[in-house]
């Protein structure tokens, strides 16, 4: 049943397929995104924080500027892209995946294949991230067309200096429609998930928190997470676990003397749980690949990287169970907005070099820090 509002906008919960039980995601209908009233804006903001991922259909004609303005509704005083200028660093693992739109630098182009002209970018080649470039163990070449992985579970955030963006928007401009793939976790559990090639996977970090034991909830509420300085350069030699949820510990992260200068005041130490500004719910919100140390309630610090990662993995892994994943099966014109402080997301799928796929992505470094738990 659509949820009635005082504007023409209606909210429709995403119904999971049989066997699936994720409890978030909604489609928003009836919104004119170029001409939103104050009431519309309030309805959309509430819908986002109540459903974490919201989808608007048929938005192919929305300009990059309108996408920027829509994304900024959630944080009106923010103006700069979520990674700032840090992507300029050629050694960042994010560098190859994103191309900045010259006339709207908060909006990035991502996708796959050769593109002659798009938003003022000429003769670009986009490359869909393939797990082969990031995972420690990979799917064999012969299985690769029919099988895939979660590439990297993450939050969109620089995690150094800048505050994590509140919301990210993704517009599917061009989507090659091909067959389904089997997403394999390959972690010994036998977990797998059938999804449409190139789906973006989301999990709720509120569910991730709710699944914890009372003891772990308390630990999560009272522990702070320290992120590595320049995390995407720091982690560049390291490789991921097979389900994309954190890195394998081989002691090969770059030492400080091989990183750009570190300003200690810019290192991020964030709560392990982030509070939803509308519902007050707590999300277990950790970027698993970027963590470096944990600061406990008793004043002690865990800085052994392998131990830190084991703890974080134990807390997060139940939350990415196949039935809890909302895999957005993109259609051209889909505009998704997601609560970047309440979900983790991952690229999935693999494309042939000539398969053209174009998305526009936008987020802004937030104007304020995350809200932690009360206690
Ligand atoms: Fe992302």
List the helices and strands and how they pair.
Layout: E1 10-13, E2 26-29, H1 38-51, E3 53-56, H2 64-72, E4 99-100, E5 107-118, E6 121-126, E7 147-148, E8 167-174, E9 180-184, E10 192-196, E11 200-204, H3 205-210, H4 214-222, E12 224-227, H5 231-234, E13 269-271, E14 273-275, E15 282-284, E16 291-295, E17 301-302, H6 305-316, E18 326-328, E19 335-339, E20 343-347, E21 357-363
Parallel strand pairs: 2-3, 7-9
Antiparallel strand pairs: 1-2, 3-19, 4-5, 5-6, 5-21, 8-19, 8-21, 9-10, 11-18, 11-20, 12-13, 12-16, 14-15, 16-17
The protein binds fe (ii) ion.
Fe (ii) ion is lined by residues 154, 156, 345.
Task: Note down, in words, how this protein is organized.
Its cofactor is Fe(2+). It holds the Pfam family TauD. This is Clavaminate synthase-like protein. Keywords: Dioxygenase, Iron, Metal-binding, Oxidoreductase. There is one protein chain. It is built from 6 helices and 21 strands. It is of the alpha+beta class and 375 residues long. It has one domain: Double-stranded beta-helix, CATH 3.60.130.10. The strands form 5 sheets. Strands 1, 2, 3, 4, 5, 6, 8, 19 and 21 form a 9-stranded mixed sheet that branches. The radius of gyration is 20 Å and the shape is globular. The mean pLDDT is 94. The site of fe (ii) ion (FE2) has 3 residues, from loops.
